[in-house]
Amino acid sequence: MEERSGFGYFLLGLGIGVAAGILWAPRAGEETRQFLADKAGEGADYLKSRAQDSTEYVRQRANDLKQSASDLYEQGRSAVSKHRDTLGAAVEAGKQAYRDAVSDVKAASAGSGTTSSSTGGVEPV
Q1: Distance between CA atoms of 26 and 24, rounded to whole angstroms?
Q2: Closest alpha carbon to 101 in 123, 86, 85, 117
Q3: Sorting pLDDT into bands at 50, 70 and 90, what band is 96?
Q4: How far is Cα 57 from Cα 46, in angstroms, rounded to an integer?
Q5: Rounded to an integer, what distance in angstroms lies between the CA atom of residue 27 and that of residue 21?
Q6: Are 125 and 95 a contacting pair, CB within 8 Å?
Q7: 23-38: pLDDT as tens digits
Q8: For 121, which DSSP code?
Q9: With 70 as the cut, is the pLDDT of residue 125 above it?
Q10: Which of 109, 93, 112 is nearest to 120 (CA)?
C-alpha cells in the first residue's frame, strides 16, 4: 500500500516539475531544443576527442610494453646463453678432471706393478 502512495507522490512531483519547467523556461521551445542539440553536439565532440586521446595513450603504452617485453626477452636470452656456456665449460672441466684422475690411478698402479683390474675397471671418457 505504501509503495502505491510513494509512486503517486513520484508522479505528482514529476508533473509539478514539468509544469514548472514549461512556465519558467528561459527560452522558447525552438531555442531550447537548439540549445540542447548544440550542447549534445559539444558533448559528443568532447567524448570523441577524449576517445582519440585515450586510444593514442593506449597505443603508446602498448608500444612501451612491447619494448619492455622485448628488452626482457633479450636479457633472458643473454643470461641463458651465458649460463649455458658456463655450464658447458664446467662439464668439460669435470670430464678432464675425471680423465686426469683415471690417468693418475693407472700411472700409480702401473708403477706399483698391479693390473688395471685394481682400478675397478674404470675407463676414461
Answers
A1: 6
A2: 123
A3: very high
A4: 16
A5: 11
A6: yes
A7: 777 777 788 788 878 8
A8: S
A9: no
A10: 109
At residue 86's C-alpha, the angle toward residues 85 and 88, to 5°, is 65
109 close to 115: Cβ distance less than 8 angstroms? yes
The span from the CA of 11 to the CA of 19, in Å, is: 12
Q: Which helix (H) or strand (E) holds 29?
A: helix 29-112
Beta-carbon-side half-sphere exposure of residue 115 (alpha carbons within 13 Å): 3
Q: Looking at the predicted structure, is the pLDDT value of residue 82 above 50?
A: yes
The Cα–Cα gap between 58 and 62 comes to 6
Transcribe 38-79 into DSSP letters: HHHHHHHHHHHHHHHHHHHHHHHHHHHHHHHHHHHHHHHHHH
The set of cell numbers assigned to 70 is 622485448
Cβ atoms within 10 A of the Cβ of 26, count?
Answer: 7
